[in-house]
Write a sequence for this structure.
């Protein structure tokens, strides 16, 4: 019994960490490249979950729903980048506040469309029965979410380190002026990164739906976690987002399981430690 | 001279508010405006003069408010409870300042937001202490110096007294050498460092002072509503307070007050007709930042000056024509 509890909680933590990675890797990339914390990222995640809910009601296949829901959120991200953030180029403080305004609008429209009740997303039927191994039962769906997050992490790593696009993004993160100077189309890069980040958040939302449900307030629950991941791991670093996600996933999940009253307070501690001793975060490339 | 006249007129108008409106509902709304104006003024100390955008300001409302309620319930008298609440919340501000100021610029926004949400999360989750989502009631309004402030007009005057004291201090603050060094630290931190100023310390002291006045406003908020729940300290509340300062015009003294009045009135009026306050809040946010980045008060002042110059020139033109 005791063992079962620890194993299940550990598994829940890594699955939640995987979701957090999908959310915060995009956040971190956008922050690293454009120097703005996209405060609408939590709303993107929530919107993904709601899109997933509606697409699943239309009897769409789960993975297809995840893909379409993610791309839908990604398109919204492009619209926001092109038509709102672009007009405030150079005014980073204004850009941040605008993303916050957009997140309020998205959250309120979600409330209007999908009402205030939590909407459960069914996991794909083949993944519902638990996986039995060595006398323990593992929730299959969470294992699959973890696997997807790991694949996404690997794909993002390859994208960043092995492709031309990744090289351009890295150049932009390290020195925007020089990147412009050597002829990298920074403007198009911004849009691409925004599409990528918003899509990841949207896919994360759909995949997180069966675990977390889609409910109003999901956005403000997830956004601080993404912020803490980036503060811990360091902005603009994929490795930082990866390590940070799993740290926060563990702390948050075990916090809720063991000291539910103080789950948020427990999150506070690692953040304090990192800020005091390593203001750039564990693997930060950019000063936050 | 005109300045003093305007000030006297403003003071008389503020004093006469309960007589002019009469209706209890609107007098209460006036008290609300004053409380939010104090919040907006306190956040503006950081935002306007220091260039620090905080998204965790409602956290002080939470810490001061819950501390005040819990201390009163625990049996302390109202004055002790209020002092304890403000002291605790200011101490929290001192600590939050240590953390947030580790990262200048945009990291500051992220850290204050995360801290504010952590305060919210604790209030939301710690059921035994805060009543969780259901909130917690404050037993009764205090009796400062034996005055009864239970009805709307007398509470309005109580709030007004606190507000005027705060306004005086914040005005002195903005005009003081310290205020000037803060503005310097905002615009030219590197040069200020060269001149021997401790930029970090200047920002930190401002952060703590802003936290102090926000705590005072938080205690007033609890006295006004006699109730506190996590909804009152959500990210949305922090954003509203920030928007008040930006809408009215950060880095002016009157801007946050105007902004607080507008937002509070719009919110009250809109909430009675439609449920979509959050959408409207978001739209105001986007529109103000995209089209009115300096806020209403500086914008209007500029327009007024331009109009006056224009009029002067028009007066001057006919006179100069015969000379040609």
């Amino acid at each position: 019994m005791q063992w079962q509890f620890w194993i299940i909680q550990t598994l829940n933590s890594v699955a939640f960490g995987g979701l957090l990675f999908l959310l915060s890797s995009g956040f971190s990339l956008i922050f690293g490249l454009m120097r703005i914390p996209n405060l609408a990222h939590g709303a993107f995640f929530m919107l993904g979950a709601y899109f997933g809910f509606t697409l699943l009601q239309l009897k769409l296949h789960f993975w297809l729903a995840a893909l379409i829901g993610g791309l839908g959120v990604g398109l919204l991200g492009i619209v926001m980048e092109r038509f709102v953030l672009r007009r405030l180029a150079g005014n980073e403080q204004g850009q941040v506040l605008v993303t916050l305004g957009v997140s309020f609008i998205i959250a309120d429209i979600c409330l209007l469309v999908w009402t205030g009740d939590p909407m459960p997303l069914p996991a794909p039927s083949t993944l519902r029965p638990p996986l039995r191994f060595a006398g323990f039962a593992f929730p299959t769906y969470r294992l699959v979410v973890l696997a997807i997050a790991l694949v996404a992490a690997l794909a993002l790593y390859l994208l960043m380190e092995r492709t031309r696009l990744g090289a351009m993004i890295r150049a932009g993160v390290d020195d925007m002026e020089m990147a412009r100077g050597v002829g990298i189309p920074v403007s198009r890069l911004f849009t691409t990164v925004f599409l990528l980040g918003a899509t990841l958040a949207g896919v994360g939302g759909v995949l997180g739906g069966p675990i977390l449900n889609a409910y109003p307030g999901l956005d403000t629950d997830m956004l601080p976690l993404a912020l803490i991941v980036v503060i811990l791991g360091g902005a603009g670093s994929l490795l930082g987002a990866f390590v940070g996600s799993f740290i926060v996933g563990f702390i948050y999940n075990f916090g809720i399981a063991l000291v539910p009253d103080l789950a948020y307070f427990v999150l506070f501690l690692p953040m304090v430690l990192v800020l005091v001793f390593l203001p750039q975060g564990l693997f930060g490339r950019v000063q936050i | 001279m005109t300045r003093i006249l305007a000030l006297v007129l403003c003071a008389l108008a503020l004093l006469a508010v309960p007589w002019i409106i009469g209706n209890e509902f609107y007098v209460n709304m006036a008290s609300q405006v004053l409380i939010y104006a104090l919040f907006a003024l306190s956040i503006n100390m950081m935002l306007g003069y220091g260039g620090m955008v905080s998204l965790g300001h409602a956290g002080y409302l939470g810490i001061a408010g819950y501390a005040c309620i819990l201390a009163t319930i625990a049996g302390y008298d109202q004055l002790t409870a209020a002092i304890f609440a403000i002291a605790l919340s200011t101490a929290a501000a001192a600590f939050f300042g240590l953390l947030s100021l580790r990262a200048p610029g945009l990291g500051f926004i992220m850290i204050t937001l995360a801290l504010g949400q952590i305060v919210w999360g604790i209030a939301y989750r710690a059921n035994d202490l805060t009543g969780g989502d259901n909130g917690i009631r404050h037993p009764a309004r205090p009796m400062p110096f034996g005055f009864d402030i239970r009805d709307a007009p007398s509470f309005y005057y109580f709030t007004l007294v606190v507000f005027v004291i705060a306004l005086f201090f914040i005005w002195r603050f903005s005009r003081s050498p310290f205020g000037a060094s803060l503005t310097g630290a905002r615009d030219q931190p590197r040069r200020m460092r060269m001149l021997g100023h401790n930029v970090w310390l200047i920002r930190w002291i401002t952060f703590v002072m802003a936290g102090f006045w926000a705590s005072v406003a938080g205690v007033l908020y609890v006295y006004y509503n006699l109730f506190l729940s996590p909804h009152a300290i959500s990210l949305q509340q922090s954003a509203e307070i920030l928007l008040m300062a930006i809408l009215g015009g950060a880095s002016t003294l009157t801007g946050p007050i105007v902004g607080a009045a507008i937002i509070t009135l719009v919110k009250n009026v809109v909430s009675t007709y439609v449920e979509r306050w959050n959408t409207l809040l978001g739209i105001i946010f986007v529109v103000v930042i995209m089209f009115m980045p300096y806020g209403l008060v500086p914008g209007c002042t500029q327009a007024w000056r331009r109009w006056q110059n224009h009029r002067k020139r028009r007066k001057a033109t006919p006179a100069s024509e015969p000379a040609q």
